[in-house]
Sequence to fold (461 residues):
Amino acid sequence: MKPRILVVDDEPLIRTALSETIRRKGFESVMACDGEDALLQFRRSPTPLVFADIRMPRMDGLELLKRIKGAESAPRVVLITAYGSVETAVQAMKEGAYDFLMKPFSTKRVEEILERAMGAEGAYAADSAAAAIVSRDPKILALLSTVKRVADDAASILIQGESGTGKELFARQAHLSGRRRQGPFVAVNCAAIPESLLESELFGHERGAFTGAMTRRVGKFEAADGGTLLLDEISEMSAPLQAKLLRALQERAIDRVGGSRPVEVDIRVVATTNRDLKDEIRHGRFRPDLYYRLAVVPISLPPLRERKGDIALLARHFVKRYAGGADNPVREISPAAIARLEGWSWPGNVRELESCVHRSVLLCNRACLEPSDLILETMIEPATGEQIQETTGGSFRAMEKQLILETLASVGGNRMKAAEILGVSVRTIRNKLRDYREAGKILPITGRELAAPVTSIRKSS
Ligand SMILES: Nc1ncnc2c1ncn2[C@@H]1O[C@H](COP(=O)(O)OP(=O)(O)OP(=O)(O)O)[C@@H](O)[C@H]1O
Ligand SMILES: [Mg+2]
Fold:
């Protein structure tokens, strides 16, 4: 498991920039938006290193430093100060900060601190990356060795699989196994960025290329030069962009929006999708020539229900990851609980199993997790025909919710498919699910929302 680093700042831009650098260095990053939030996260899952802004609402960085220093597993704390506030920096060091970072800071400076603070642990992260994929399934193990075999090549990899099967994990593995691990790993979620912005996000633009393009901007292709570019949810790309991507892959060069000549890039592209791209091709929604360019190395990850042998292994792995904190008594999981997990269908695959174990561990107050401690997401349990209730009366909202959740369940949690069946956009589904989650029905996986009242969780027995 990669060592985690906590990033605390009320400015989202700084948070994401720092996290990006941290991930590029092979660590995992967790984010918090202020001191209180950070303290909460740290108590749940301590990290060896913390980057914290000094000026934040609620609890500032210095206060956080004081509180955290008293913890059993005292981390190294790097405080972020505004440009020119030397006194604060000095005070920070006096209070026991490990180092300070003055805004605006360079990536290089952050990397320096990471290297110094994490030292040997950093090397461990890169080497043990192979161990991050937990499986004894012959199919998964074969795919893993394929990925390692082609790691040094620039040939594109296409990873297909249902949501939560480990596509991103495999993409990172491809990056870390080869010589490109020295270079950046840049991820773009093609479904999350509005189509109108995606082109300049990917290829960058020149100053004045369009209204609002005040400065030149480097796109993700250039940012990933020398490393790996992950194109997540590739099936969401529009036809014109598919054409541009094909050209970029063929020429190994890109055109910035408004640019006059191509810029050469040395990247390996890994694309992922949870749709059947062959099917998209048949429906005329995806270019076959692009498909073959991307799928030089095709990887198809089986859903968890088709590799039940992995459930016990993964469950124990996640218990180890999330249990064992100073204020958590859980140490192991009973065979009966494992059997219960093995009987579940896991529409959300490994991600669902991970969050199930995580929240069960958090809420359990004994040493061994028993079946009654498991909190499964009964909400999206695959529906059988008989389960569809007669609905006379009841609110429109409740019926809509039932319809959405049951449709989702029938397609194994695949939001794209559910959206298609229901004739709404994926965004609508996402927003609805977020609403349900905010109403306290589905407990979020990680992050500060874990602090939400636990009384709203239904325990299944
Ligand atoms: N074999 C595995 N061993 C350990 N952890 C795993 C494994 N497979 C998946 N995970 C974990 O499950 C979670 C989901 O994995 P990941 O994000 O790679 O899925 P994904 O296929 O990209 O999902 P999505 O389609 O929703 O983006 C992550 O926290 C990942 O670390
Ligand atoms: Mg993913």
